Amino acid sequence: MASYDLTPRIAPNLDRHLVFPILEFLQERQLYPDEEILKSKIELLSQTNMVDYAMDIHKSLYHTEDVPQDMVERRAEVVARLKALEEAAAPIVTFLLNPSSVQELRADKSYNLQMLNDRYQIGPEQIEALYQYAKFQFECGNYSGAADYLYQYRELCTNSERSLSALWGKLAAEILMQNWDIALDELNRLKEIIDSKNFSSALNQVQSRIWLMNWSLFIFFNNENGRTQIIDLFNQDKYLNAIQTNAPHLLRYLATAFIVNKRRRPQFKDFIRVVQQEQYSFKDPITEFLACVYVNYDFDGAQKKMRECEEAILNDPFLGKRVEEGNFSSVPLRDEFLENARLFIFETYCRIHRRIDIGVLAEKLNLNYEEAERWIVNLIRTSKLEAKIDSKSGTILIEPNNPNVYEQLIDHTKALSGRTYKLVTQVLEHAQTQTAR
Asked: Tell me: the pLDDT tens digits for 272-281?
């Protein structure tokens, strides 16, 4: 099952602290030997200030109470550095802890800086110390304190690059504390900045979008409306282009969202073209399932892929997590996926056949005969499908339901104005970029 694991592709696009929840999930699922996961954790922790946590894992891995001398020395360095940063940031931290003092701040940052300097002798050095202190707190694993200080820092900071860095840190902290609503607000705020910012190169902007999408997986699959929100973000032209260019692994999550989200079927048709374009450059059970159904009409292959899709979902840190917790949905994501995947096979199969043997269809849906018959009866009752079941012959008779020429013309041209607008916008943005250079 490790062959379906996307962690090696996702992890390079995450803050190292965001990789820990993924490693925890993989350890619970036992996708890799426990020793291998623990060694990965220690290696990851060596680049943070979470020395006590690293010591605990070392003891668990090697079954000893002794820890290497370099860990002991590293801990002493962290404690000393934390104390020094705490002292440097003390004046502004004291100010921020006083509600009456904070009320003096205004929306005008220039006024705030002047007021802090005149009344409290707090200048740029102390404000910079607040950023360093917040960043160090984050590296130590104190995400709550880091989030608070980074928020206050952004309220005072006049350096756009430093403010952007603080926003990334705030987003990571909120994700790690599982404050999903706040994290979503920060994600949207970050998206606005990325889309409007003048980057030194187009490649840097593309990379920022890729980071944003990878981080967003934590939020969207822990949010009640996440299936719609991930389509709204990932399926935008600029973000979809970034996925196809440097992050095709994200197609798994967009494909899953489309499959379980019946309200976005009009956009789904365009997405199938992307799946078709990428089917030879990126292999994933979920995108391959869509290619089997909608591109190759390989229904036997689709049936086999459904089993792989189920395993891939169960062992995915974002898709499988909901199956266990089910905190906002009574139906596990895996079950919703399989139900809709069967529906996709059935709908497509019906479009190219007039008479269908229930036994053959049951095999393609991975159901026994009785289950398939009940499933089809319920589907005919609850959908607009024009079909009848012939119990004697064990077949389904499909009534043709072809749209007239005018309906087809409307269907193909209704999105034309929107696409034209997007194309004109991209051309103008490109022209402005060239002029600025």
From this structure: 999 999 988 8
